């Protein structure tokens, strides 16, 4: 995608952002009318001259979501419609796609003799425990503003080596970059890079993903990068990227931790610190399916970075409050006084999953739906009240 096309794709959905924050709509969730107010003096993100990154938690397309998509002519698109302006607003948007999107691949990793015409058939395209999503999800993610997809996760090998290959092909066809898995026989890098506009000249950002496990499934070709026990190690890979004069900043997106735990474990904490010490500007985690805290880390050379241990579920059909509450995390990348590209402390727009008769399962900013107050309160308790921002705040930003 050309730089101009990328800019147009990012700007068009923003036209609706200010309205989405304050104007009721009968076509979406039960939108809450927002009162007017002054803009914050310093939102903390979208600073002039900085590049703003958005990241989300798990896109986990359970059976119910796939069934909803199969029943609609526009497939998965309505599930993301209410967050599209908020994803497109950033200069770079990264999501974790938890599971393959492998066209025509059966459980066990064999190619089907004929790919089903439906988005969900419970044979080729399935939900838990071994996922496979219709590859049309890739085009939907591209259209709602996603740029980079993290493909290293514990379900990455749910359709075997062929599933990894076809997932990467589907993402590439949609114009999306990927990180954390690679096709058989390529031997290419685990990371991907994106060039971002920034004061003092543009900057090249490397995004590296890894996973704690592939659920014990065979990984004969080493197609998924392991967060622990890989050779070279993840910190070594970060160190090499940070030392590359062509790369200005490194982001690590690990799939790690304990499911449904509100606190990071020791392995997460150790890898987070090792990553920042090795040169990562920020660490943004996934997998626990619930929000976990954000921590700022100062490296031994004085650099400041942060770790968001888990952004929870972005889209799923898990309905307990902590599991239906997620966040779009925003943070600015900008040059410091020494010319280094560093990550500034992040802010979070709280999201919530709901299911509507007319739309199926959707993800929306929690502040825009009548049931969202509980999710906002939960996110403030986990992330810190000062880190949580509103749709009105974003409408005020540059």
UniProtKB/TrEMBL annotation:
Keywords assigned by UniProt, alphabetized: Signal
UniProt keyword Signal, yes or no: yes
Signal sequence region: 1-20
Keyword Signal: yes
InterPro entries named among the record's database cross-references: Capsule_synth_CapA, CW_Biosynth-Accessory, Metallo-depent_PP-like
SUPFAM superfamilies (UniProt xref): Metallo-dependent phosphatases
Capsule synthesis protein CapA domain boundaries: 52-318
Domain of life assignment: Bacteria
UniProt-listed Pfam families: PGA_cap (PF09587)
Residues passing through the membrane, by range: none
Family as reported in the entry's similarity comment: Belongs to the CapA family.
Protein name: Capsule synthesis protein CapA domain-containing protein
Lineage of source species: Bacteria, Pseudomonadati, Pseudomonadota, Alphaproteobacteria, Rhodobacterales
